[in-house]
Amino acid sequence: MAWKYQYSLKERTFSYQKIKTYQNGYPFIFIGDKSESNTAKRTLLTQLRRNNNNDFKLDMEPFDILKSFIESDSCHSIGGPIQLVKIYKHLNCRPFNINFNDSKTLLGRPLLPYEKNNFLTLDADTKKITDQDGNELISTSQDSSI
Question: Which of 48, 50, 105, 143 has the smallest C-beta neighbourhood within 10 Å, fewest atoms?
């Protein structure tokens, strides 16, 4: 079960609501400006139905939608470097470096040439995952267990 928390300026208090689940019982949500997040949700559901993904199991589809929004001029409130964090079932989290637009970033911040870290790197275009030494570990089109 997942919850969405938000602050109301009018009521000056936080409120929460349960995130809607879909056919498979898994919740998902796009957070941001209402029009863009609704467009992202509709795009995702359409894409899943078009691909006959009737159990609505997600792989890299939300990432692809976010990337297309960033590259598009139609979504003015979405932009900048992509940020990706893997959240495991036991709630451990691990951020990813992202190669996108000839830049390597971590959590939205461009990494300087001398900076090193132990996080995996995802190439936003090829979806290949590499370690800190550049060794390819996974191509997400083959294995989605990032």
Answer: 50
Block residue for tokens 């970033």:
105
Three-state secondary structure along the chain? CCEEEEEECCCCEEEEEECCECCCCCECCCCCCHHHHHHHHHHHHHHHHHCCCCCCCCCCHHHHHHHHHHHCCCCCCCCCCCCEEEECCCCCEEEEEEEECCEEEECCEECCCCCCCCCCEEECCCCEEECCCCCEEEECCCCCCC
Report the half-sphere exposure of 20 (CA within 13 A, side-chain side): 5
d(CA 106, CA 83): 7
pLDDT tens-digit series, residues 93-102: 999 999 998 8
